[in-house]
Structures are given as structure tokens and as C-alpha cells.
Fold each of these.
Amino acid sequence: MSRRGRALFGRTAAVKIAAAVSVVATAIFFCAVEALAQCAMCRTALEDGGGATARTMNLGIIVLLIPPVAIFCTIFAVAYRKGKVSDDQS
């Protein structure tokens, strides 16, 4: 790859893309309406169950979120290390 190609897709561009993705994800997170994300069964169970049921449901959501986040972080770390090694070699 030429020098110009490396400069175009270098670390600066990757940082800018990561920052843009972070800003968009944060904006979506803060603009979300919480009631739209619940199915009818979950909503009924939470309305009738009380505070303990709501805490249990939130804990279940967190537990189900851990594996996909761990997989994503692992793939990202491997890709970052591979990219860093190839940058050091050139």
C-alpha cells in the first residue's frame, strides 16, 4: 500500500470514526424511550410484580448483555493487535 493509502486509513481516521460512532451511540442511548423497548408480557410482569421483580428483570438484562459485549471486545482487541503488529512491520 502506498504512503498516501496508509495516511488515508491510518490511526487518525480510525480515531475519528470511533469517536463518531461513540457520539451516535450515546445520542441514540439518551434519546430512547424506555416504554417502546418492552414486550407486552414483560411490561405486564413488571407492572404487577413490584420493585423486586423490576430489579430482577434488570439484573437478567445485564447478565444477558455480558456475553455479546465480551465477544465484541475480544474481536476488537484481536483486530487492534493484528493491525498494530502490521503497522510496526511496515
Note: The two ends are 10 Å apart (CA to CA).
Amino acid sequence: MPKITAPSVNPPHYFEMTFTAEAGRPYRLWIRGKAQDDFWGNDSVWVQFSDSVNSSGAAVFRTGTTSGTEINLEDCSGCGLSGWGWQDNGWGVGVLGPQLFFQSTGTHTIRVQGREDGISIDQIVLSPSTYLFTSPGALKNDNTVLPASGGGTPQPQPPTITSVFPSPGSTAGGTSVTITGTNFASGATVKFDTTAATSVTVVSSTSITVITPPHAAGLVNVVVTNPDGQSATLTNGFTYTAPAQPFIILEDDFNDNSLNFAKWSANNLFSGFTDTAVQTLETTGRLQIGALFSGQSGSHYNGLRSTAAYNFSGAYSYVELVQGPTASTTADAMFTIGQDPQNYYRIYVEQGVLICQAKIGGSKRNLFTAAYSSSVHHWWRMRHDQSTGRVVFETASDNPDLAGSWVIRYSEPWDTSAVPLSSVIFELKAGTWQAESIAPGTVVFDNFRAVRP
């Protein structure tokens, strides 16, 4: 018959066999064949597999397609044939064909289709190690016949590591990295020097993802150990670096029971009228404002403002509201960032409602409101997102310095003409604006901090 130039999707003549192989490992295909009458026109076949892939994981040489890998027993045009010989799927003297990979670990099927008449096949070998780069026997007049094998699981090979990315990472740990290499087995463990990584996921035999553990700054070895005890070490494979320390703009934990007048100005609010009769003091390690007045009409607010104006570009500021005013009153507890009574951003609580507010050019807008929860809204934060130029209002229930604690409540572009980032004032205040029939109680703040990351 004439030479078949491509495999057939449904060939009329073929045979199939099953074997087992591992996903992600390279295999070399060899056959021991003989051409009828040692004629070069009788020496080739097409070979396909049920789930073969290339080194990048793309499907190749699949049964049911017109893609196949070709085996020509003669090594080159004019090289000649003589009796039985071992050949792979490469063409040319000393040329090895493409390695084979498989999509999954387990049982696979090989299909052999005729390409020319007259070829006989004695043995087929798929080797991940012994014959990966060496032929099982001679190309001509071969007498090598290998012991029969069902293609059982190959002898486990030790892992190798080629890269760890990204690097460097923080000494605090928590960096998600991908380790690339070979022969990674399910259940493998990873250590950075002698400390075990967490969240180890063996993605494939060539990739592992992990979360780095905490470690002192410097270079460390990365060690991957398979369940069979075989391991690989990438010397100085990862670098730990100390995280950059944030720049403290202004902070006060109010723990010394004495107002710090280098940081704060008392009885001198910037955002509205100050009633010095409303007591403001630092006591029991907190800032206390009140008791707030009841039965008095008009504005009665007091608290603290920063003595200086600060550059707030790319910065954030938060405070803990330990105790708000009585929810059945219209008394306020307020945290404000701004410059004058007509231009500021504010978070406050009034009558059991949390409110995010902007006052620009003397016009107030409530940006966000929600039923106030002393646990969910325990911490308040305003920040300038330098990448987007927005003011962001956030709250947290606990541990404000922990990544992921903050919940964004609202954001909009920061009006830099009304509230210049180069010169903002911080203010904590509380008070009443109308006569309250019920005692509004005392407002308590704690742990103020303004930081540029």
C-alpha cells in the first residue's frame, strides 16, 4: 500500500496495549522492529496514546486525532536495514525523538497504526530512566530482548529544585511562593532551613506552592522531601528581608494618664465651637470626654486636636472607640481629619448610627450610614490611597494592625483643593448640639495612630 502520511482518526488496521505511567515524568519510546526484506519502504509506523502531552502540558499524539509520533526503523536515508533493531521516534543518526509525558498517573493506552507495509514489531519500551537517553539495543542485527514488563510504577526518583519565586519575602513569613523542579510527590514537605512551611500544595510533579514560615533575615536553603524520604535542597534558595518600618506621623496610646501637649491641643477644636466646660482628660489609660451635658441646648463639644498639621499623602490614621454616647441620644463621638470648620472628612456615631461624612466648602454630605455596632465598628480608620487618589473610610472589629482586619465602608476621590494632603489636622471630640433629656454619658477613645506605610 502507499505510505500513510498522517494517522487516521479511525484506522482500519491497528493494535493497542495498556501500560501504567506517572504524570509529569518524561518517557522515551523505543520499539524493536524488523522491515520485511530489510526494505526501507517497509520500516515505519504511527504511534499514538490516550492522554499524551508535551513538556508544557499540551495534548500531542492523541488517539482519535491525526497527530502521531512516527517511528522509522532506518536511521537515515541510505543508512540501510539489517534484521531486528531498536529505534525511537527520532530521525537522523544520533538524533533522539521528542520525550513523551502523560496528563495523569495511572493506566494509559498506546495505539500503533501501520504507516507502511511489512514491518514486524517484537517489543515496545517506554522508559523514564534506564533508556531515557540510551537505546535498549542495537539498531541492526540486534539480539537484545528485554524481560517482559507490564509497565508498573517506575522506581521513584529523587526530587530536584530549580527555582523559588517570588524571593525575597518578609521575615514575618506569610509569603506565598511557588517551587519549581521535578519529581515532586504528593505529600511532599517543604522546609526553609529547618522550619516547616505551611499550606504545602503539590500542584504537579514539577510545581509546589507553599506559605513561608517566619525566619530571621538572610539567605536560607529550601528543602523538599518526598514521602519516601528522598529530598532536594536549593542552597540559598530564598531570601528573608525585614519589612520596611512604617513612618509614624502621630500616635498616642493615652497610657500615661496625662495629656501630651507636644502632640495635642486641648480646648481648641478646629472643626467647630469649643465648650471648655466639657471635661477632657486622660485617665485609666484612655482619653475620656464628658460626662456630656444633658438638658442644655446649643453646641457643647470638646476634645483634642493635633498641635501641628501633617503631610497625609499615602497615609492612614485610626482610633479605637472604647465607648460611644448613649444610643438613645443625639450626642456625638467624632474622629475628624481636615483643615478648617468648612473642609474635612469625618467618621462619627450619633443616635446608634455610624456615619462617614465629608464637608467640602461648607457643604456636608453623609457618605455612608449603618446601625452602629460597638464590636463590628470598634476601630475607625481614614486613609489616603495614593495609587487611586481616594479617601477611604474603614472599620475593624479587632487587631487593626493585622492584614485583612479592615472593612471598606466608602471611598471617593480625595478633594485635595479643599483638604490639602500636605497639611491636615487630626481631631477627636465628643459633645451635644441640642438639649438631651437622657444623660448622654461619657465618650472614651484610645490608641490613636497616624502612619505612612
Note: The domain at 14-127 is CATH 2.60.120 (Jelly Rolls).
Amino acid sequence: MSVYIERAKGYLIASIAAISLCNLATAEENAPIQVASAATIETADHKKITIDEAQKRLQTTYSRLTFTDFREGPIPGLFEIVAGNRVIYYQPQMEILIFGELFSKDGRSLTQEYLTSQQEKKIATIPLDQALVIGNGPKKIIEFTDPDCPYCQRLHAFLKDHAKEVTRYVFFSPIRGLHPDSPQKVVHILCSKDKAASMDAVYSGKVAPTELTKCEEGEKLEAKQEAISTQFGVGGTPMLVLDNSVVTGFQEARIAQFINPNSATQSK
């Protein structure tokens, strides 16, 4: 159900929906929580509560929720949280979580602006020196992928066709619950002397299960890449970073536009 909230000074309109905690993504269990300051704010019912108190109350009530940022929101008594790749709002008096988007009166999405600023900070922390680097084209793509994900395989084939145009920074993020064989395929790739060629063979279905290799170094690299993916909040694959934008799924048109911004104009 949508609820419309108007700030007394008239600058915000929110279209929000409260949903059950059972739908929350828990991909960031290992992510560090940024502890907010102990500033005191006045809530909607004119009671005083510190940001620290609100955060502790949230963690007590919603113990399964993991988040990377917690701060005072743009509406009195409402707090903003970054959990995974979404912004959630928290009202401590009623102890409810609110999912939705806040807009200013001039049409700006305050939710998206906040999320973008947080994403840019997270993107800057991705250790690119620990990625499998493929190509040396002018366009940089950070890629979180799973060998047994059909859309990841399609993405791989698509990017292979644009090999001269992109540099791929690949992090393997096997979704173990859906693809139990993926971790071993990642280990096989990371054990290979030519990792890029091995990745292509695996993603193209040219490596039989009996041909998969194992090595201690590959297992260590696989665990490290999986930890990086978890830290970044990868809950599904493929997930890409194009400049400072996070793209989920194989969005072919958007990726093509990123690689060649003039392609749409030229095709008309």
C-alpha cells in the first residue's frame, strides 16, 4: 500500500511501501556497519532519541538485517539505511521498515542521490588488483559472475564480441545454493595458466566435469573473490559496474550503449 508523506515545510513527497523482513537480502553479513554520531533528533511525536539509540533499537528488532550506513533521514523521526543495494527507511517509535523513494518538490530523487553517493564509495574500495583482468580496451567494466548462470554466459559471449573495446575486471561470485558446481569451476579457472582462455572454455560449455582441476592456490583465490563479492553486496549475477553505476542482470542494450554511446545514433 502506498502512503504519501508531506513534510511540514513542504519540500518532500514520498511514495513508500512497508514490506516484510523476510524479503530482505542478507548478502552483506560481513560488511562493516558505520556507526553514526550520537546526535539527538526530535521524532515525529516530539520525543528525543539519539541516532545511536535508534540504531541499537533497529538491530535488536531486526537482527537479521545487515547494513553499511545508518543516518538521520530527511523527514523528522525517519532514519536512512543502506542495506545491500537499496535504501530502507526506519521509524523507531513504531519499529517499522519502509521501502520506497523520497522526492523533493523539484522532482529529484533524494533516495537515489543518497544511494549513488554510497555506491560510489563502495565502488572505490573494490580491489581491482585482485580481479581477473581480460582485455585492454578503453571501456572499464567490473563484472561479478557465476560460471553456471545462463545470463552470465550470455554476457560473457557478448563481451567477447567487444573484446577490443573493453577491459574486464572479473570477480567470481558463485551462487552456491543454485549452482553447487560453480565453485569448483571457478577453482579450475583460477588454477589455469591462461585464466582468460580457461574462463572462455568453461563459460562456453567446453569443459566436462571430469576435466575440472583443483589446486590450493585456486581455492584460496576463489575464497578471496567470493569474499569480495559478498563485501560488495552481490546477491545475484551477473552484476556489473559501469563507471559509477551498478547494473544488475544482463541488460544488453544498456551495456552496448555504455561501450559505444554513439551506436544508437548511428543505427538510426
Note: Residues 180 and 210 are 15 Å apart (CA to CA).
Amino acid sequence: MSTPRGGGRTPGIAFSALVFALLGFACAVPAVVGLILGLVARPRAKEAGAGVGLATAAIAVSAAWLVLFAVLVVMAIAGTRP
């Protein structure tokens, strides 16, 4: 059985995921990229023993942006019906 190494380096993909998640306010594309990178980064960070919080934050922030965009799109569509 392998155990996670304690005090490892945070994988760069976790930082990238959070950056894209935070850029998600501009449009949905960076939020989707941040969500995908966050989902990929979380197991890698867990294995490295560092950066799990960054990856989790990226997933949460990206998901929040995507939900907000979905609500805005639905509201815009509902408001344009005759």
C-alpha cells in the first residue's frame, strides 16, 4: 500500500485550475477549463500531499460561475418570449 507523501509540492495544475476558475467571471469557457483542471488536479494533489484545497476551491468556484451563467441564460431566454 502506498501512502501519500506529506509536505510535497503543490502540483502546478492545481494553481492553473484556480486561475482559470477565477477568470471564469469573464465568460463560461475559463470556468469550464477550471472545473476540468480542478477535477484532474484533485487526485494528483492528494497523491502529492499538497494542493488539495486549491483544487477543491477551483472546482467550487468554477461550479458557482457555471450555475450563475446557466441561471442568467435561462432568465434571458425567459425574458425574450412574446
Note: Residues 12-79 form one domain.
